[in-house]
Design a protein that fits this description.
about 45% helix, seven-stranded parallel β-sheet, alpha/beta, about 400 residues
C-alpha cells in the first residue's frame, strides 16, 4: 500500500505506529505538523506547519522551566485556535497529498492532525486515530472544537481507537455506524522484548538502595493529570512507609514539580528525573513496586501497559477506559485522582500487599501478551487498512 500519515513526527507513539509499515515494506509518506528528525525508511517526509514556531522556553530565577505553569491556559487557547489553524493549512496538505496520490491517509489523533486531514478532503479514504482524551477532554471543550470533531468523524472511512469507550463515543460524535473500526493501543502495543519482567542484567539502580520500595509517576506534568493530588499524597505515604522513594521521569527542571519538591522538603525521597528512553523506563518499571497515574481523562495510556508488562502494580484514576484493563483489587487499584488521601491509601496498600502485587503481575503479564503485544497488534492494523480499502471499493 501507498500510505500517507498526517502526524506530529516528534511523537514516539506516532513513530512506533509508522515504523511497522515501513518495516513491512509499504510505501510510507509522513506529513508532519511539527519539525522533527528524519525517520528512516520513509519514501518522503514533509512538514505542514500547523503551529507557530515556539520561542525557547523561559526559565525563572532558579533555572526551572516556567512553561508548565499555565498548562490549562495553553490548552484552552489551543482549543479555540487549533481548528482555525488546521483549516488555514488544509490547502498545503491537499497539494502534498495530490503529489503522493496515496491509497490511504491516516491522521494520528483528532486534534489537530485529524482536523487538518479532514479539511484537506483527500481523495483517498481517511483513517482517524483517537488517543486518550480526544473525545472526553478536547472534543467538548469549545464550540469550534465540537464542530471540528464532528466534521472529522463524519468524513472518516475508518477509526482506530485506543479504547472501546472511544469507539462507542465516536458514533455519538457522527461516525458512520458501518465504518470499519480497530481498538488497539495508540502506539501499536508493547515491545515485550524491552518491557518485560526482571531482573534484567545491566538495569540501572537509579541511585536508590536495593531495600527501598520505589513508586514511579510516569506521566510527567499534563493538564489532565492531577499532579497536586500526587504530591500531596507523598507525605502521607511516608508516614506509613518511610523508606519509600518516589521517582518522577520528565519532571526535572519543571517549575511546578520543582516547586512541590521544595515545598515538601522530602530530600532524596522525591527524585525528579529527566525524560527517559524506553530501555530506562522499562528498568524503572521493573525496579518499582507501584506505578501511579492520577489522571482525570485517559484512553489506554502506553505507560499503563508498559508498567503492567514489567510486573509493576498499576494505580490509576477510576475511569471507564482504564476499567477495560484494570479490575480494582485484582490486577491494580483504581482511585479518585482528585483525592490525595485515597491516592495515598492505595499506594500504601500497593506497597504492603505482596499477594496483590504477585496476583497482578501474573494477570497483567497475560493481558499484555494477549491484547497488547506489538507483534500481535500491528498485523491486525495492517488487516484493518485492507478492510478500509475493501469497504471503499464496495462503495
Amino acid at each position: 500500500m501507498r500510505l500517507a500519515f498526517v502526524a506530529d513526527g516528534r511523537s514516539p507513539i506516532a513513530r512506533s505506529w509508522i515504523d511497522y509499515f515501513v518495516a513491512s515494506g509499504h510505501e510510507v509518506h509522513l506529513l508532519t505538523t511539527r519539525a522533527c528528525a528524519d525517520l528512516r525508511g520513509l519514501t518522503s517526509q514533509d512538514i505542514v506547519p500547523l503551529w507557530p514556531r515556539r520561542r525557547p522556553a523561559a526559565r525563572d530565577a532558579s533555572g526551572a522551566l516556567r512553561s508548565q505553569r499555565n498548562l490549562g491556559a495553553v490548552t484552552t487557547l489551543r482549543h479555540w485556535i487549533g481548528p482555525l489553524l488546521a483549516w488555514r493549512q488544509a490547502g498545503v496538505l491537499r497539494g502534498m497529498l495530490h503529489q503522493i496520490n496515496p491509497d490511504l491517509v491516516h491522521a494520528l489523533r483528532i486534534p489537530f492532525e485529524g482536523m487538518l486531514a479532514a479539511a484537506a478532503s483527500p481523495d483517498a479514504p481517511l483513517v482517524i486515530s483517537t488517543w486518550g482524551n480526544d473525545l472526553t477532554l478536547h472534543a467538548p471543550s469549545t464550540p469550534i472544537m465540537r464542530w471540528a470533531t464532528r466534521r472529522v468523524l463524519r468524513r472518516a472511512a475508518g477509526l482506530h481507537a485506543d479504547c472501546a469507550r472511544d469507539e462507542r463515543l465516536a458514533r455519538s460524535w457522527g461516525l458512520d455506524p458501518k465504518c470499519p473500526g480497530l481498538v488497539a493501543p495508540g502506539n501499536g502495543g508493547v515491545r515485550r522484548e524491552t518491557f518485560r519482567p526482571g531482573p534484567v542484567s545491566g538495569d540501572p539502580d537509579f541511585g536508590v538502595p536495593s531495600h527501598a520500595p520505589i513508586v514511579v509517576q510516569p506521566r510527567g506534568l499534563r493538564a489532565y493529570v492531577r499532579s497536586e493530588s500526587f504530591f500531596r499524597a507523598l507525605p502521607r505515604v511516608l508516614e506509613a512507609a518511610p523508606a519509600t522513594v518516589f521517582l518522577c521521569p520528565a519532571m526535572e527542571g519543571v517549575a511546578e514539580a520543582e516547586g512541590w519538591k521544595a515545598r515538601l522538603d522530602l530530600g532524596p525521597r522525591l527524585r525528579l528525573l529527566p525524560p527517559l528512553d524506553p530501555g530506562s523506563m522499562a528498568a524503572l518499571f521493573r525496579r518499582a513496586s507501584v506505578s501511579v497515574s492520577p489522571s482525570t481523562h485517559d484512553g489506554t495510556p502506553n505507560t499503563l501497559l508498559e508498567a503492567m508488562a514489567c510486573g509493576c502494580l498499576p494505580i490509576a484514576g477510576d475511569l471507564e477506559s482504564i476499567r477495560e484493563w484494570i479490575h480494582d483489587g485484582e490486577n491494580g487499584l483504581l482511585v479518585d485522582p482528585r483525592n490525595p488521601q485515597a491516592l495515598a491509601d492505595a499506594v500504601e496498600r500497593g506497597l504492603k500487599d505482596d499477594a496483590l502485587r504477585a496476583r497482578a503481575r501474573q494477570i497483567n503479564g497475560e493481558l499484555v501478551a494477549t491484547r497488547a503485544d506489538y507483534d500481535e497488534v500491528m498485523p491486525r492494523a495492517e488487516s484493518f487498512y485492507a478492510q478500509v480499502l475493501r469497504a471503499r471499493d464496495r462503495r
